[in-house]
């Protein structure tokens, strides 16, 4: 997995997580679509068959959307499988890449000299999404997670950077850290980190 594909996957992951958290009805909407298609078939109404999702794909999509955060589940499983299947590649290579990406994003966001160079708010949002996405991946891949004191990610600094942004820009990102990470509620997570995310 290259750094570029990891970055692209992370951005898509977080965008999807935030969308699913804001629009949880997507699974209900898809179920409605399936019922409507089924009714149309029963009534011999073959409307726009070219664009219809076949049953096998519809079943896969239903299982995918049944997850609370389907893209996260898919990407973290793929990353974990990659690490597991490539035993000759040290785990640190993957976790170092993820922690470096989180650190670079944090520095870009917290340093006025760098953040002032961004020409649009979308670039700031992009940077925050990447940071949160790689933190979540790191937390799923590393045995001790991202919140442990030994983590290579400055979680306190990352959370502070997010909290310094306008609330409507970061609510979904903070929720993603709260609800999609694996190790936040571990005993090894410092209390001040847990408090910052409450």
Quick structural overview:
The protein has 198 residues and is mainly α.
What are the defining features of this structure?
198 residues; mainly alpha; 0% strand; globular
Let me know the average pLDDT: 82
Low-confidence stretches: none
What kind of sheet is the major sheet?
none
Overall shape: it is globular
Query: Separation of termini?
Result: 34 Å
Radius of gyration: 20 Å
The count of helical stretches stands at 10
Topology pattern, helix = H, strand = E = HHHHHHHHHH
Oligomer: single chain
Counting helices, strands and paired strands, the structural category is: mainly alpha
Helix-strand layout with pairing:
Layout: H1 3-22, H2 26-42, H3 55-66, H4 70-85, H5 91-110, H6 112-115, H7 121-141, H8 155-163, H9 167-180, H10 191-196
Helix pairs in contact: 1-4, 1-7, 2-3, 4-7, 5-7, 7-9
């Amino acid at each position: 997995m290259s750094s570029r594909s990891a970055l692209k996957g992370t951005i898509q992951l977080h965008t999807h997580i935030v969308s699913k958290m804001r629009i949880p009805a997507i699974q209900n909407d898809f179920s409605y679509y399936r019922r409507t298609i089924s009714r149309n078939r029963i009534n011999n109404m073959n409307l726009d068959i070219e664009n219809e999702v076949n049953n096998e794909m519809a079943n896969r999509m239903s299982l995918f959307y049944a997850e609370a955060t389907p893209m996260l589940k898919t990407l973290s499983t793929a990353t974990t499988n990659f690490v597991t299947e490539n035993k000759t590649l040290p785990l640190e290579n993957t976790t170092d890449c993820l922690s470096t990406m989180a650190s670079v994003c944090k520095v870009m966001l917290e340093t006025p000299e760098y953040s002032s160079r961004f020409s649009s708010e979308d670039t700031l949002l992009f940077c925050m999404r990447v940071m949160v996405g790689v933190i979540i991946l790191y937390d799923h891949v590393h045995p001790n997670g991202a919140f442990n004191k030994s983590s290579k990610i400055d979680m306190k600094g990352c959370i502070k950077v997010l909290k310094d942004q306008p609330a409507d820009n970061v609510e979904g990102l903070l929720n993603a850290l709260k609800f999609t990470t694996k190790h936040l509620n571990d005993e090894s997570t410092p209390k001040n980190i847990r408090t910052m995310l409450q």
